[in-house]
Amino acid sequence: MPSPRQLSSADPGFAGELERLLAFEAAQDPGVEQATAQILESVRQRGDAALLELTARFDRWTPAGASELIVPPEAARSALRELPRVEREALEIAAGRIRAFHERQLQESWRFDDGEGAVLGQQVTALDRAGLYVPGGKAAYPSSVLMTAIAAKVAGVRELVMTTPTPGGELNRAVLAAAALAGVDRIVRVGGAQAVGALAFGTASVPAVDKIVGPGNAYVAAAKRKVFGRVGIDMVAGPSEVLVIADGTANADWVAMDLFSQAEHDEIAQAILLTPDAGLLERVAESMRRQIGELPRRAVIEASLGARGALIRVRDLDEACQLANRIAPEHLELAVADPEKLLAKIRNAGAIFLGHHASESLGDYCAGPNHVLPTSRTARFSSPLGVYDFQKRSSVIGVSPEAARRLGRTAATLARSEGLEAHARSAEWRMGTDPNSSGKQ
Question: Catalytic amino acids?
Answer without folding.
Answer: 330-331
